[in-house]
Amino acid sequence: MASRSKQTPDLVEIARFPSRLEAESIGHALDQYDIPFVVRSDDVGIYGPGMTGWSPQGASLWVAAGQVDEVRELLSCVVAPLDDAEDEEEGEAD
Question: How confident is the model at residue 80 (pLDDT cuts 50, 70, 90)?
Answer without folding.
Answer: confident
